[in-house]
Design brief:
Blueprint (H helix, E strand, L loop, with lengths): L2 E2 L3 H13 L1 E5 L4 E5 L3 E10 L9 E12 L2 E13 L10 E2 L2 H7 L3 E2 H5 L3 H5 L4 H12 L5 E3 L2 H14 L11 E3 H8 L7 E3 L5 E3 L3 H7 L18 H32 L9 E8 L7 E8 L2 E8 L4 E4 L4 H4 L2 H12 L4 H4 L6 E2 L2 H4 L4
């Protein structure tokens, strides 16, 4: 099994969570309390006329402002925003590829099927130019935001702001993403499952599947009914509930890691003997640079994922036992570079010579 360090989105979300929250952990009692000063988090969602934030437009935007204190989300009074926007770019009959829907309904899926929004409905709503001041007054320039698959909604907000001479400025650690957090916390084995067109089960991290897994997908006005998803406000309600759960799931992981640290003897990191470096072309841009080495007398292979910009291992467990800082330093020296950007440009095979190997004696 190949194992890698957390990807960029997971690292960013971990940093965001640790910037916002602190964790009061008692390993003896096996308890954890989340601590943070009161902050405002805007959970939001958009429905759009397409997937390209350069040419498509937001047709519905919904949001709820929460005050978060010690990891608890409380909806702020009069903190909701739910707006429909008259956009000529929207076409309720635009086709969306969905084989399961077509099989069940005998026709292609349309945007109206997805969002429930019709052209007639939008024709009676304010234009973006008319409604933007309300949106700007609500969000401001630099809010702490959260969505499910935040990069999608964030991209549309940035484009909308630019069209009206403003900048939407939340930096990466002020953009919480319940999708990325869930993928970081929940393994594919433990995630909800769907069956694909080939009849095979696969993990899914959709908002509906995750809230269903945690039992928080009930309708706001009737707990005996389910929320309808791809309605912007319902998605916000579900995302807020999921964020609340994930904050405490994250805290529990912090507790588990501290307990493991306290009860596990420290691993002695071995210095790997770097033997050679090779380039693997891969496919579809997934290229790697392999560093072949010896660890504790056994052959081991590590790799630098050029696209993902992260280090990984061929055999599970070798990175834990290896002084990765020294391995990377030795690999850079053998390649005659001093940073990852230059290391990523290596294409030729490089073999260590006797003079290079002298350092390990």
């Amino acid at each position: 099994m190949k194992k890698t360090f957390p990807n960029e989105s997971a690292r960013t979300q971990r940093q965001a969570m640790n910037d916002i929250f602190s964790f009061d952990i008692d390993t003896a009692a096996k308890t954890v309390n989340v601590k943070n000063d009161p902050i405002e988090i805007i959970v939001f969602d958009t429905e759009t006329s397409g997937l390209d934030n350069d040419k498509d437009r937001v047709v519905q935007i919904s949001a709820i402002k929460f005050e978060c204190k010690d990891g608890r989300l409380t909806e702020k009074e009069n903190g909701r925003l739910d707006l429909f926007i008259n956009q000529p770019e929207y076409d309720e009959n635009k086709i969306i590829k969905d084989p399961a829907f077509e099989k069940e309904n005998g026709r292609p899926k349309t945007f109206k099927d997805l969002t429930g929004i019709s052209n007639e409905q939008l024709s009676k709503c304010p234009t973006e130019e008319e409604i933007f001041p309300t949106i700007y007054a609500y969000f401001g320039d630099d809010p702490l935001i959260c969505a499910h698959n935040t990069p999608f909604d964030y991209g549309f907000m940035v484009s909308m702001y630019v069209r009206h001479g403003k900048n939407f400025l939340p930096k990466p650690t002020r953009r919480l993403d319940t999708l990325a957090i869930a993928r970081d916390l929940i393994s594919k084995e433990d995630a909800p499952k769907v069956v694909n067109d080939e009849g095979k089960e696969r993990a899914t991290y959709t908002l509906g599947a995750l809230t269903g897994m945690y039992g928080i997908d009930y309708a706001e006005d009737d707990s005996s009914k389910k929320l309808g998803f791809h309605n912007s406000m319902n998605d916000v309600i579900a995302c807020g509930r999921l964020l609340q759960v994930l904050i405490h799931e994250y805290a529990n992981r912090e507790l588990e890691e501290k307990i493991t640290e306290a009860t596990t003897p420290p691993v002695v990191k071995e210095r790997a003997i770097v033997r050679d470096i090779s380039f693997w072309e891969g496919y579809r841009g997934f290229s790697r640079i392999y560093v072949n080495a010896t660890v504790r007398g056994a052959a081991a292979a590590f790799f630098y994922d050029i696209r993902g910009k992260k280090w990984g291992e061929r055999d599970e467990g070798t990175m834990v036992a290896t002084d990765m800082e020294m391995l990377i330093k030795d690999a850079f020296e053998l390649a005659k570079v001093d940073n990852e950007a230059d290391f990523a440009k290596i294409k030729e095979a490089i073999k260590a010579d006797e003079a290079f190997l002298e350092r390990y004696k």
